[in-house]
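Curious: explain these tokens?
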Amino acid sequence: MNPVTEAELQAWVDGRLAPARCADVDNYLEHHPQEAERLHAYRRQNVALRALYGPVLDETIPRGMLRPRGWDRWGWPARRYAAGLALMFGGAALGWVAHDNLAQDAAVVAQTRASGGPGLAYRAALAHSVYSPEVRHPVEVGADQEAHLVAWLSKRLGTQLRPPRLTPLGYELVGGRLLPGDSGPVAQFMYADATGQRLTLYVSSGQHGGKDTGFRYAQEGQVRVFYWIDGSYGYALSGVLDKTELTRVANAVHEQL
């Protein structure tokens, strides 16, 4: 058997591996569990990225961006070179402006991160997209060990966590896991209804300078998110379901927290 190459492993991740080599790669991964875990992590990232940005790829290209018909064979190159020159000189001018405003822009970015903002919703949606499709390992600690799960995550985040009870709304706790955040550890609790529809509650620590906020809504691809800041903690409820249903659950979560 020919050695399995990194290029073939990446092709396997993307679903582009030649059928004749699939059995060889599967056999290789069976005997190299660390490599198998690495590649499955890549696949989960692919799933998450498709869930977040797939709808953008399906959008119609604006008419103004399409090349008009009737251009002669020389018209397009000439305009292309002219546009290149314009971009070159324009870029030089913009560089001076950007140089003056760089410090101000950095301060704005830092302030946005410190106050939570849309970044919280994005990270929560991404975590939901990565872990909610998992069949065998959707959580690190299952609901059958809830006391241990809550004690562990509470210790790591530095506050007493209380997973909301959503049984009256049709959602049971599946379990949870610890995740890394921008400025500290993050807890993720996962719920599921009788049909297998999953919701995740993302609890982020380290929201320095964050102010109490009401509900805010965001959508990343197919994932809808309600999020809010409470002191130094950020909360985000994510799911691939209609906004009305997510609002109903988010209200219950907010009341209990």
